[in-house]
Amino acid sequence: MLLDSDVKEIKGIGDKTAASLKKLHIETVKDLIFYIPRDFTLFEEPVALSAELSGKTLSFGGYMKAGSFSTVKKGRLDYSHVTFIHNGKNVYLTFFNMPYLKKQLDPSVEYVIRGQLEVGKNGAFSMTQPKLYTLEQYSSIQGSLQPMYPLTKGLSNNIISKAVKQVIDKVDIPDDGLDDLKEGCISFAQALSNMHFPINYDAFILARERIVFHEFVSFILQMKTEANETRNISFDKPLIETADTVRLLEQLPYKLTNAQKKAWADIRNDLESGRCMNRMVQGDVGSGKTIIAFLALIMNAANGYQGVLMAPTEVLAKQHYEKLVQMKAEYKLNINPILLLGSMSAKDKKSVYTSISSSEVNIIIGTHAVFQNKVEYKHLTMVVTDEQHRFGVKQREAIVNKGEKVHLLVMSATPIPRSLAMIMYGDIDLSLINELPANRLPIKNCVVGKDFRKKSYEFIEKEVHDGHQAYVICPQVEEGLDDNLENVVDYAKKLSSEFPSDIITSYLHGKMSLEQKDSIMQDFKDKKIDVLVSTTVIEVGIDVPNATVIMIENAERFGLAQLHQLRGRVGRGDSQSYCIFLSTKNDKTTMERLNVLNSSNDGFKIADEDLKLRGPGDLFGVRQSGEFGFTIGDIYNDSKILRDAADCVNELFKPNNQSKLDAIIAALSNSNINSVDFRTI
Ligand code: ADP
Ligand code: MG
What we know:
Blueprint lengths: L14 H9 L5 H5 L5 E4 L14 E8 L5 E5 L2 E10 L2 E8 L4 H4 L6 E6 L1 E2 L5 E4 L2 E4 H7 L3 E4 L8 H12 L19 H9 L4 H31 L11 H9 L6 H15 L5 E6 L6 H13 L3 E5 L3 H18 L5 E4 L5 H12 L5 E4 L13 E7 L6 H10 L4 E6 L5 H8 L3 E5 L10 E5 L4 H13 L3 E5 L14 H11 L6 E4 L5 H12 L5 E4 L12 E6 L7 H8 L10 E5 L5 H12 L3 H11 L25 H14 L5 H14 L10
Parallel strand pairs: 5-8, 11-16, 11-17, 12-14, 12-15, 13-14, 15-16, 18-23, 19-21, 19-22, 20-21, 22-23
Antiparallel strand pairs: 1-10, 2-4, 2-6, 3-4, 4-5, 6-9, 7-8
Helix pairs in contact: 6-7, 7-13, 7-21, 9-10, 18-20
This protein binds adenosine-5'-diphosphate and magnesium ion.
């Protein structure tokens, strides 16, 4: 079996399972190996049940009470009830749709039962849908860590775990060349294997660190290589500023802020200098980065070249495209923009490819579909990436390889603590937009618990009746991954029965088709939808100034910087806006974290606090889910590894290490972990 083999070649995976795996973007053996568990379960020694253990997931031993098995039908479900005897006490178990257990259970055999213990008011023990093991079965897994994978409908943890087990030690995983860089480094292949099936927690942590190191070295190496390359490239024909941008600036309904003016001046200087631009514009959410990107692309187009604007989600790409088309009409701009998305039909794509290669169009807006091999540019000289940190190393490589000499401009709204930004982007020129447009009122925030839900709904209702709109954010797309988390689909249903019928509720998530996403976003912009329940797919860039409330469910599950981004969806116009962070946890650490947001609207301050508040060891709790294009690394939690990685890369760039550097670059390009696909969040 090869890394590129189809998952269907794995024993036990048929068409149906393969289809479910595809939903998780697992199509090849490689995808499967890089599918990292979200947590582990430790199968501890069976315990003696007591009331204090209420709510805990645990295992206990017991015998079935003979004749206690009964099944009743309620609606579409079969409910089976059976009583077990444990230390002389009854434990009541309930199973769904498993009437066949009756035949399998043997009252003379001791079982180990594992599940979440419920203790009734009268002190009775019960469990719902627990797992049953014979003593032999349990002792074979006792003390071991079992991986728990993010799931989707039609997949069980067991299916994934079994499949990984079958391939992990059999396929040949290419070496990444980094073993010698750090003392005590295990091989990349070993690390991947231990990521799934570690012998203990320490082994898992070591494995994880090794893979994070791989991700960080790849990233920093790529950034440094790019910077070195672009720095030495010169353009024979520097761009010149034309009347187009000057006229546009005069016609805009607002004046640029001073910080925007400065950023635009920096960019113009780069473009006029006759050298390659390699610049990042960093500015807090809502600081107005889009217009700066447009100005650069318009100047490039006016000089007769093609430029690309790449966004991390289709929703955002579409929004940028529509905005530019609207500006073209309104201000009579002399440009020819086109949209290119991965989910377009083959026929539509083909016609877009033709327009691009014939240089009919000069501004191409899209997702990373713009860098597929099939796209041939005619005079590509500029690549602007919005929210660039979300793109993985692979995508960056693809970009730079497309045009021979390209001006690179990256826009980033994620304020990164300065110390980390220097490590990650130290070789890039930086323009900071540290000022918001003057019409903005600071967002009013609150951090609340579940009890506040009703009040929040009333508040949203009032805002909607005042003519505004609202977002509600849930961490999950649909039921399945984790029952303790709210999901968009069910939540939207619940909300529409909660609100009076004149309030229109709808939902949005990344797993919808492009048409669906489009029509929902369009309806929201057109005020046909009042309350939009969404996953974090709207986190980046979405601009609907009439929305004034955002309520974030399970706020404890998100990183602070991410919450700040989400909050940035409101406060974009001149009305007072509000953000409700609803947490189902109210322990001290959670509250301390969320209160940082309550007391500050300044992204940079929040990022610094986030870094301070988090320590290593917070492996599964809060992650800036894929925010920097890393599959598992987290620049906050893993900041020490990030520093190590930077030190190693700096060492490699010393002149006498050239051959080592070349070898590592070659090895890495074979073994790179794919970056997360953001369209599906
Ligand atoms: P971000 O930096 O988050 O990408 P956007 O570029 O989406 O922000 O801008 C947010 C909103 O502010 C948009 O509606 C945009 O038209 C508006 N805007 C941009 N610059 C200014 C300005 N100088 N004055 C007033 N509004 C502005
Ligand atoms: Mg933006």
